[in-house]
Write the structure tokens for this entry.
Amino acid sequence: MTPEIAEVKQFVVKQMPFSQLPDAASYFFATHLEVIYLTQHNQHQWLRDTQLNLYLVRSGSFDLLCARGEIVMRLAEGDYFGYPSLLTGEAIKSQLRVTAPGLVYVLKAADFDFLRAEYKQFEQYFVKAHTNRLLSVHYKQIRDSWSEKKVSEVMHKGAVTLPPCASIYEAAKTMSEHSVSSVIVSDNNKLLGVVTDKDLRNRVLAKAIDPAKPLSCIMTKSPKYIFEHNRVFSALHLMLKHNIHHLPVLNEHLVPLGMLTSTDLLRQQKSDPVQLIAKIHKAQSVAQLKLLASQVPLLLKSFANNIDDMSLLGKLLSSLSDALTSRLIVLYQQRHGPAPCKFSWICFGSQAREEQTLHSDQDNGLLLFDEITDEQKRYFAGMGEFVCAHLAQCGIRTCPGNIMASNEACRGTISQWLTRFETWLHAPTPKAMLNCKIYFDMRFIDGADSLYSEFATKLTKLVKNDLFFAAMASDINTNSVPLGLFQQFKLEKDQQQHKFLDLKRRGVVIINDIVRLYALKARIYKANTQERLEALLDSQQLSKKDIYDLKDCWRFLTQLRLKTQLESEPLPENCINPECLTSLEKHQLKEAFHLIKQAQQACAFKFARGSL
Amino acid sequence: MILPYWLQKMYRHAKLKQCDFKALHYVAMDLELTGLDVNKCEIVSVAWLNFDSLNISLHTAQYYLNKEVKSLAQSPIYHGIDETMLEQGDKLENIILRLAQVVEGQVLVCHNAVLDWAFIKNASNVIGVEIKPRAILDTMLIEKRRLTSTGQPIAVDSLTLPACRKRYQLPDYQTHNALVDTLATAELLLAQVSSISAGKRIKLADLM
């Protein structure tokens, strides 16, 4: 029996996947490998098609380059390479560049195949690594992904337009001649409205309207539109949010160029959130809604494979929750009669920020008008209970903090809500700070928009207390990024002694808190962190560079976080084991944490006068 | 015309020194001893490992304990091998015979070869076999020459195996036994050769 070399074996045992395999697997690897000293002078001898190997870096650092010479991965101690060709049998596409010469462990194809056959987990690890590598390479070719495409690339070219004075009959004729399902109504190149074939059915035929009448009486006036240079995803988001299937596309001078339809988008992708949302809006019973909601996790998974920017998943999920909520409100009204007075259904926290995940819980409330009677209150109490209970059955967990419209405290009139906010603003206790963080991320979902605007305007005027900003800034600084003195990760441990980093609590949350603070200061009434940052560009609160840094950090962390969620490692939610990251990702993660730390300090300096 | 034996030997040696480093095969070897005095002390264990200019094959690694050690004395402090472990070992004669087979026609590589070679010579004389490597390379001497040529003064502890490896950013091995040190020596030689040759052809003479 070949003796194992202690130092080699000890190193191998610590590496994934061997750390999770029986000792025999590490012994096999440690006694069958060859050690090479990889330098720029001999590197051409390796990664050749004639001899396929698995490589594991022991020391030194190397760049893995794709055929075009771009860096695919920075390789350092503990990184593997060479496995894609071993798995697929395809020709080796990558090249190596030696940054610092060092030792590399080499396992021959036959021995790799032995381990693969013997240990399922071994194979799974490399198959997964291979998939991730493909994804990361794919991410670089961002232009190829449909959701990142520009609207102009996928839309119907050539706008089919008619003047508002044209007859309904003419519209039907034009649509059939061009075989399109909609026309744009415009005057002097100015978008006035949209008429779809569905409108012809519902607004003309069903109501026996004279087809000689002008289009202007049946068109959808001032419709939603999108610009040609916007990303397809923005269009999708708009369609999901407003449950529409036709979006006029305009150029910068607001001239209609064409129409983007949900069919155009469907052609771009396999799974169809648009249709799911449409079905939700049509559901006739709670049972039907639940059935549709049960498709969400699956849809999310298939959708995740199609998009590059994972943070869009949060928006998608929030759109789905919004749709479920709206439909439940309609169903409640069908059972108990229309609302006796104006109301706004609002949401808070992650749903408001459009950052929802599959594990997010409900945070919602009802805004009522001031002169409400007790009987009317009972109607809304019923609505709150009905919607929240059924949302829970649709898979959106109830809120442990009871921030739900089913709770009486969360069904308030405008003045009641304002009083609540005022108490928190003036007595900045830790509990009040926590409430501010949840409730200040707020979004209107259904009901009367006017009621919500009135409230939002009044609330904005309320937030001007410097003491509050100082308290918020110091509160933000009580949370810290998991970086040690020398830029090392500070890991946390769970009961099973798994070491991990909490990406949400120690990263995303801090950015959200910082951005919320600046947004409140600049009186920006948006809840989404990216949109808040976008809006902050016009204010003097933060420099352009800081804004872009925060945007990048947020996107990177969200991406990592959702990736781990989909891969469901045996770690607490939103946590990641840095050992599983590539050295490039580790580096980026450290950089992100570092930037967050700087932003925290800047915010303390600005709002708390550095008095920490 | 038949050349006299000594001249033949000199000729062969000169020719060997012109050999390309890449054309030869190597055996790295390390011993654990009961002490440093070749006349009084004994071999506790022998480890070796085959390699060539490109790779070190770990499946060729061999490690033998000498079950005939008469007195370990204080030496377990250094190598951690005690008498119960030795009982599992082999007879020194068998170990030396195997080594002779492996080393035949190969280049032997040791760190501080003078010491190891003296013990091996001694042991092989006792059993009456000749160990015939084509040449012996000493990673410690190679390092000493490299340091001298740069004009640096050489500190006492700057030529130990870990100190030499550190200069090439090779991993810092915590465990030290004959087997680990054999691998450490082979890795060091490859790093030294890469550094000396800088991609060009290198002759054995450049290392001797």
